[in-house]
Structures are given as C-alpha cells and as structure tokens.
Specification:
alpha+beta; Aminopeptidase; eight-stranded mixed β-sheet; four-stranded antiparallel β-sheet; Acyl_CoA_acyltransferase; GNAT_dom; GNAT family N-acetyltransferase
Amino acid sequence: MTNIRILNEEEMQAAILLANRIFRDAEQVPMQSGFPYLYSTTYGHSFGTFEGDRLLGFNGLLPAVLRVGPAAINVFSLGSVCIDPEARGRGYASSMLDNVKDHVKNAGASLLLVTGTRSLYTRAACHLFGAVTRVLLDQSCAHSILASKESQQYHLRAMKPYEWLQLHKVARSRDVHYEQSVWDFAGLTKAEAYASCVKLKHQVLVAERNGKVTAFAVVAVPKGTLQSRRPPFAIEWAGDASAVASLFAFATINSDIATLEVPVNWHEHELLEVLHRVPSTSEQNLGTVYIANIEQFVEEIRPYWMQHDASVGAQLTIHLVTDDEYELSLPQLPTLRLRGQQLTSLLFTPAAQIKLTEEWAAALHKLLPIPLPSTSGLNYI
C-alpha cells in the first residue's frame, strides 16, 4: 500500500539519494548542495510517495514571498520532481501533485510556481504564463555596448567577498523580486541551483560609479573541464539598466563567451530598451503557475492595483465558480467568465489573446498584466 506524506529528516536523506540518482552525474555537485533550502526539512514542505518505508517519488516544495511593488504574494515553488524508474507509470506523480496543491492552499499560499510544462501539470490547471525576451548577446554586440558613452561611466569588475550588503541593497531596490534576506541572497548565489543543473558556474560582477555599487549581475559561465548542457546565461541582476547591460557585455568578453543568453522579463522596459538592438527571441516564463486561491491572490495584489487605478483596483473581484473556471466582477459591468488558462494569461501575460468587451478592456488595462519575477533566477527550484 502506498502513502503520500511530507518528508521528515530521515526520509529526506532517501529523497536526496533518489534525486542525485535521477538528476546528477559524477561531474555535478549533489542536489543538496545546489538546492540547500529545498532539501532541508527546516525550510521545505516536500512530499514523498512511499511503499512501506521505501521512497518511490519526490516533490520538492518550498515557500517564498514575491514582492510586486507594494504587494506581497505568498507562493510555493515546486521542482526536483522525480519517480523511481521502477515505479513509473503507476500514477504516483499525479497523486503527489494533488496532495501538493491541497497543501499549498492550506498552508496559506495563493500561487504555486511549477518548474515544468509537461501534460502532468497542464492537465492539472497549471498554466503557461508571462513573457520573456531572450537576448542573445554575442561578442560584436558586447564590444559595441562597452564602447558606448553610457558604459564608459562605470567601473566594471568582479564582486569582492565582503560586498554582500551593498549588492543586497541594490537587489532590494527592484520593484519586482523574490523576497530575499542578505543570507538568502548570498546563500543562493553560492548554491548555483540552475547553473549546477547544466554544468556552469556563477560569476558575480558589479558596476561602480563614483565609488558606489550601482548594479550587479550573476551570470552562469563555463569553468574548468565541465562540458555544459547549454550556452552561458544570465541568472539575476539589478540596478541601473545601462550598467546592467554593460555587465552582461563585460561578462561576454571577459569570459570569452560566444553568446550570453539574457532572459529579460517583459516588465523590465528600461533594460529591454538598452538592449533593443541585440538579436533576441520571445518565449514564455519558465514553467507553469497554478492559482491555488484566487480570492486570496486578489487581496494580496490589491495594493499594486491601487497604485495604478484606485477606483477599479478597489472594486475588482475574482472568484472560482467551478473547477478551473472563474468569474470577474466590477460594478456596472456584466460578469466576465474565463477558463483557467484564459485568466492566467490575462493576469500575467502581456498582449494576451483574450477577447474582452471594450468596457472590460478599458477597466483592466491599467491593472493587468501583473509582473512576476523570473522563475529562472537565484530562487530557481
């Protein structure tokens, strides 16, 4: 008989062994090194599927708070999902996901961010969301950026070991970000979660102006003899847009990278403008999102809405009416009913292809879409 439950300390050790067997090879650091918070029962709420005392499956689950302007959004992130090869095809992954979704709502989160897009998730109301411009910064573009007048005003260099407080101050200045303490920021940078999965290493760079740190960038670059599974890419950044672009260019040239990929979120308008001449591709945010409690989410995001349109922001309500179907309500307007993917796109994706009446479109245009921080940054699960 199988049993699904939150792992205790001893059971987490079995989960680490399973995850290392599934996700790691001899060249990579163990999963618990790359994801120290996820594989700790102190922070995580991770689930396992057991047959007796034997662990057959693992769902890594970790809480976080997203800052969107004045709003604080309670979320969980789901990743490191794995099933013992001998136990696949028995529905354990779906059963664990059902338990995770119930737990997320009961634990007080409004959203579940899922590192996965396969049908296991999309069938279970986890929907694609957001928009990212993947900038492809090659050597020629990098040299052009560094030769610009804007770039010349910065001193670009590697971070010094004692500068965590300064970098954290810059990170905290972002309107949209994961809530991170100084310890979180330093620990996640050192852990190299996403980079460790693709055999790259973090490099932390800073831009100074008049002796003051004005920007930083964490980039994942090759190191030693490791053969990476993907091109180098930017992990996380903050600060003045021209300084950030200069740091990307500096990283490209300094590490002799053919192309540095920079996944810029749709709401980072200033950085997109600085990099608008660099070749790019468009895609959606990494993974999917499940709305665990829409009523709670509306109340959590309302301070952000009030900033942009106090009248509509105070009155808009959204309710779940049936499984993955929602109603939006505003005084003097007919009720708007949307399926889950439609609502998710309307909430989080710019230029979403959702047919709205002129009245609804006019009412919502200052409130939506809502920006969310990148799920491929330091808080990657």
